[in-house]
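Quick one before lunch.
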Amino acid sequence: MDTERLSGKKALITGGAQGMGAAIAKHWAAQGAAVCVADINEEGIAKVAQEIRDAGGQATHFTLDVTDEDQAIAAVAHVVKEFGEINLLLNNAGVNKPTIFPDTPKENYDFIMNVNAWGSFNVMKQVSKQMIAQGARKDYPYKIINVGSILSREAFLDVIPYSMAKHAVLGLIKGGAKALVQHNITVNGYGPGVVATELWKQLDKDLVDIGMFEKQGQSMDSLAENMILMKRYSYPEDVQGTASFLASPESDYMTGQLIMIDGGMVMQ
Ligand SMILES: NC(=O)c1ccc[n+]([C@@H]2O[C@H](COP(=O)([O-])OP(=O)(O)OC[C@H]3O[C@@H](n4cnc5c(N)ncnc54)[C@H](O)[C@@H]3O)[C@@H](O)[C@H]2O)c1
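Model of the nicotinamide-adenine-dinucleotide complex:
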């Protein structure tokens, strides 16, 4: 691993307490980035940040609910206080909870849209303001990476609000790229497919509860068999390389793009 690849990067990572956010925080730190691990899960962020420091990396943590404007402002201020500036955002916090349409309660819609769509918008807005205030760099762009999904380009019948919210993330990437290019800020993203994380463990249980599958553990294997070209689901390690590429100078000439990392589920 090139331990200098991300040196000089000062990153805020939302949803960093577990799953892909935690894996990417560690991967970025191992490549020289200073990372702020932010999440509602206070225990998780402290643990991940400590593990990074124990491995010789630079990390801090901050308790953040991405849906709260004041907390987003405070998170950005924390990164600036700790690292002097912010030049990289991984907008990764996300939630899902399946329901069968049209029996989807408004609370389900609100919860999913609020965290995935508004939360991403909210954090990107506050980070952008800080980046603009810092002044555009001539030598490299500040970078914003939003986490979409296969469901930024497809929709499944049992997760319609999530599909809507992840399509909103695609709109955020495209609109953000246009709004921020004048400040030399790029906005890109990636879309995982089926990734073995806590989110999927819960989803697997929920899918049994709503009658989509008969027993737990079936859903991921079934999707792998029937919908994933590579015939296997994925792990955070399958995703972190693309996240690092989008954070690195190798992607400096890219903006407004959403890259799928899904073993061939959705072709663009
Ligand atoms: N797991 C998958 O198969 C999959 C597929 C496509 C996209 N994604 C997306 O990838 C991202 C990471 O998912 P994951 O699978 O690692 O999930 P995960 O559940 O393991 O991690 C998500 C993290 O987000 C945090 N979070 C939830 N609500 C929050 C809030 N309001 N404010 C701050 N943090 C909050 C959680 O505490 C958790 O630590 C999400 O955006 C998810 O939608 C996941």
